[in-house]
Write a structure and sequence with these properties.
The chain is α/β, with parallel strands linked by helices and 262 residues long. 38% of the residues lie in helices and 19% in strands. The chain has helices spanning 2-7, 59-63, 71-89, 107-110, 112-121, 141-153, 170-175, 185-188, 195-211, 223-231, 255-261, and strands at residues 30-38, 43-52, 94-99, 128-132, 157-163, 180-183, 214-218, 236-238, 246-247. It has an eight-stranded mixed beta barrel with strand order 1-2-3-4-5-6-7-8. Helix 6 links the parallel strand 4 (128-132) and strand 5. The mean pLDDT is 89.
């Protein structure tokens, strides 16, 4: 549906062999955007694109409608929709897109629609960040590593989402060092008064720095969490403290928020 409308019947790159007409989605999607901020200069590092229903319902509602045979089509639809919407809104910073590693069977082939969408919208591909989808259990870490390496060779930034949640752990980090590590919010909750969490997060931050990866603290909700994480040397943040996801809107962080934190 959406991919055909976007590219047109004849302009669209031919889908991969594993994606047939029977796999087409019978629903449309929209995108919400949540800012990722840099505390060092109060700038916006980028925005994460988050899938929503047409009515604005959450990702769980959408994922519940996707059958196993539709994963590839769904993954491609979300990528193209994120790029199209971001370009229409005039996004000038990075665009972080979740992808489904288990839906990508051949990186070089499955990236074609993404590249075609970026060209069609005039969106620079060096602003794209690809991160593993939240709550996606990767069946084959070697396959994920191949995807990441292919994406990096094309100039994309790479990110491991929910780091510390169990799906993407130190073993994967030893195989591939992404540009970005997004710390799972469960590690950060209550960190201001929890020495164990402070030690773990501080250790991960030091490891990431040695490996050349940048850490993003994800799910930050309170000033106390923010200040504790800044003390540990973390500069990039995402969470309700700085802005909730907004449907087809690039939200800004008010100066008053920064003033209160500083």
């Amino acid at each position: 549906m959406y991919l055909t409308r976007f590219f047109g019947d004849h302009a669209s790159p031919h889908p991969c062999a594993s994606c047939g007409d029977a796999d087409r989605l019978d629903f449309d999607v929209r995108m919400a955007f949540q800012p990722i901020v840099d505390a060092r200069d109060r700038s916006v590092f980028g925005y994460e694109a988050l899938v929503r229903t047409v009515e604005g319902g959450g990702a769980a509602e959408i994922l519940g409608r996707v059958g196993p045979q539709q994963l590839y089509r769904f993954d491609q639809t979300c990528r193209v929709k994120a790029i199209e919407t971001a370009a229409r809104l005039g996004l000038q910073s990075r665009l972080s897109i979740n992808f489904l590693p288990n839906a990508v069977y051949e990186p070089a082939t499955c990236i074609r629609l993404t590249l075609a969408a970026a060209r069609r919208c005039g969106f620079p591909t060096d602003r794209l960040v690809f991160e593993t989808a939240e709550s996606e259990q990767v069946r084959d870490h070697a396959h994920l590593t191949r995807i990441f390496r292919d994406y990096r060779s094309r100039g994309f930034l790479t990110a491991i989402d929910d780091f510390g949640a169990g799906y993407a752990g130190l073993g994967l980090l030893a195989e591939f060092q992404p540009d970005v590590l997004k710390l799972d919010m469960a590690l950060l909750r209550g960190i201001a008064t929890d020495p164990a969490r402070q030690a773990i997060v501080g250790g991960v931050a030091r490891i990431a720095a040695e490996l050349g990866s940048t850490v993003i603290a994800e799910g930050v909700e309170t000033a106390a969490e923010y200040r504790a994480l800044r003390t540990l040397g973390i500069a990039l943040f995402q969470g309700y403290l700085f802005g909730r996801p907004q449907l087809e809107t690039l939200g800004e962080v008010p100066a008053s928020t920064w003033d209160a934190l500083d």
